[in-house]
């Protein structure tokens, strides 16, 4: 339980540092930083759930009160992190929108000064300026939607990758425990040590194959993230 608690403390430190970096460079921070924060918060939420399950199993433990207080502190941190992250994302969108508006106004002013007609009441010139303005505004809107969708897809990919990796590690631990019990059962049944060693060699080969697949999966996720970035 203490190891899980220490792991949770490290996660809170990581999330705090990432949020500070995001807040410092709100308008220029890369989308990958938002994806990293989303993944860290998801992993922290899972750690809290696992820690809560352990605390609920040891109700009569002398340190139950202390562990429950730690769990409550984790939940408060999670709520604070999520609230701050949502607020920063909203502020970032507002800043980007304001910058786009200012850029749009500046471009419109330049366009008007370079393409102004001798007759300010010329309907053709006015219509052309309006069409140019609408086309640029529509392009900016589409670009913003594309960036938002790309960010959401990147967040989902990172979250799925984190969950898949956690599941693989958990399954590996379960298989390791099963292997130990299986070997004990074979010894009890009188199976020779040579047979057990053969089984262990085969299990080792399967283990290398397993971690090889994990590496391939991580490389694939890296290129997917790089592609969306």
UniProtKB/TrEMBL annotation:
Gene Ontology MF annotations: SNAP receptor activity; SNARE binding
Transmembrane segments: 208-225
Gene Ontology CC annotations of this record: endoplasmic reticulum membrane; ER to Golgi transport vesicle membrane; Golgi membrane; late endosome membrane; SNARE complex
Subcellular location: Endoplasmic reticulum membrane; Golgi apparatus membrane
Biological role: SNARE required for protein transport between the ER and the Golgi complex.
Species assigned in the record: [Candida] subhashii
Domain of life: Eukaryota
One Pfam family named in its UniProt record: V-SNARE_C
Keywords for the protein's UniProt record, in alphabetical order: Coiled coil, ER-Golgi transport, Golgi apparatus, Membrane, Protein transport, Transmembrane, Transmembrane helix, Transport
Principal location class: endoplasmic reticulum
Bilayer topology: Single-pass type IV membrane protein
The protein's name in its UniProt record: Protein transport protein BOS1
GO BP, sorted A to Z: endoplasmic reticulum to Golgi vesicle-mediated transport; protein transport; vesicle fusion
Family named by the database record: Belongs to the BOS1 family.
